[in-house]
């Protein structure tokens, strides 16, 4: 078994912390990479936040970061509770990260479970948003935006796709040219890459974009065709990703890049992006579909939730943000008499 770090050694980074923990748990060296592949890059990055704080905590008390026991975990959580405003969701994520590198069943430990129940009652989970914005604000803006250059078309397409499908930006960022099929009805886009909802027993998403003849300038399928034609000579031969950066050398656009494009579009349209982040397109589009009477089954299927999922009802079914002022409405007598 590898020697235990003292906690005073530098944090080697999330992936290396997990690798060393797997070694200590007895996973053969030849099987380490395959075992690490069970974790997505997003999960490894997220757990890295926990490991950085945990490493610092262990260093302060001269303990090994791999000595993950119930007593140290509750002490660590109590320190975070007193020094941060984190809610239950964050502590639950920390629990998962520490369970991964522990050789004890921390997640099932009764002391830890009891402590987390106390955090749940003290700082219950809360949705990011209490309200959402009206997609029509952004659609009106996109309809009047006439830019035909690559930047304008890039911003328009990614925003239309998020609103037209209700999908996460992560999903939109994985679209590949060979997986796009055009027909007389519109576009069909198969998502073949691993995404957040990918699992051995689930089907990969297939996005359907029918032609929107009522307003061709807002037709996601036509905008997709235009973008493919505009970028066909810019895309490198070693990448078939749909989105490319609009600046030379036109590398494949990452999820973070697409997020910035959506944020800039929302800001230009008048959405308050100090409150609503790019991911809020998912809240806005699905809530709008619900307000207009679309069946919940169709909303779930389109946005990528399972048929029995309660996620939409809990976190995404939101009322529109109201801009009216109660006092002024009640006190204003200009329309009386």
Automatic annotation (TrEMBL):
GO terms for molecular function: DNA binding. Residues 125-332 form the Tyr recombinase domain. The keyword DNA-binding applies. SUPFAM superfamilies: DNA breaking-rejoining enzymes, lambda integrase-like, N-terminal domain. One of its GO terms (biological process) is DNA recombination. The keyword Cell cycle does not apply. It comes from the Eukaryota. InterPro entries: DNA_brk_join_enz, Integrase-like_cat_sf, Integrase_catalytic, Integrase_recombinase_N. Keywords: DNA recombination, DNA-binding. This is Tyr recombinase domain-containing protein. It comes from Nesidiocoris tenuis.
């Amino acid at each position: 078994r590898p020697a235990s770090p003292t906690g005073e050694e530098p944090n080697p980074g999330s992936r290396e912390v997990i690798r060393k923990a797997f070694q200590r748990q007895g996973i053969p060296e030849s099987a380490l990479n395959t075992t690490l592949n069970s974790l997505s890059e997003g999960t490894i990055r997220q757990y890295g936040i926990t490991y950085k704080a945990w490493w610092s905590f262990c260093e302060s008390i001269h303990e090994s970061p791999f000595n993950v026991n119930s007593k140290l975990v509750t002490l660590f959580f109590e320190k975070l509770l007193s020094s941060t405003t984190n809610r239950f969701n964050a502590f639950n994520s920390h629990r998962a990260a520490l369970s991964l590198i522990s050789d004890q069943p921390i997640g099932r430990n009764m002391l830890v479970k009891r402590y987390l129940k106390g955090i749940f009652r003290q700082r219950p989970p809360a949705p990011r948003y209490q309200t959402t914005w009206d997609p029509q604000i952004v659609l009106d803006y996109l309809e009047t935006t006439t830019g035909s250059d690559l930047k304008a078309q890039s911003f328009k397409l990614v925003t239309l796709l998020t609103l037209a499908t209700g999908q996460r930006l992560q999903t939109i960022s994985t679209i590949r040219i060979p997986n796009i099929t055009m027909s007389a009805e519109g576009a069909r886009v198969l998502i073949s890459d691993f995404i957040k909802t990918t699992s051995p027993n689930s089907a990969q998403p297939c996005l359907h974009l029918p032609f929107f003849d009522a307003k061709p300038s807002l037709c996601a399928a036509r905008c997709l065709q235009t973008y493919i034609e505009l970028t066909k000579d810019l895309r490198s031969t070693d990448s078939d990703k749909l989105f490319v950066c609009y600046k030379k050398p036109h590398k494949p656009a990452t999820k973070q890049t697409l997020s910035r494009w959506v944020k800039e579009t929302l800001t230009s349209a008048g959405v308050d992006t100090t409150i609503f982040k790019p991911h809020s397109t998912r809240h806005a589009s699905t809530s709008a579909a619900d307000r207009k009477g679309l069946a919940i089954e169709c909303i779930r299927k389109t946005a990528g939730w399972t048929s029995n999922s309660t996620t939409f009802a809990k976190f995404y079914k939101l009322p529109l943000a109201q801009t009216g002022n109660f006092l002024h409405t009640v006190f204003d007598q200009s329309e009386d008499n």
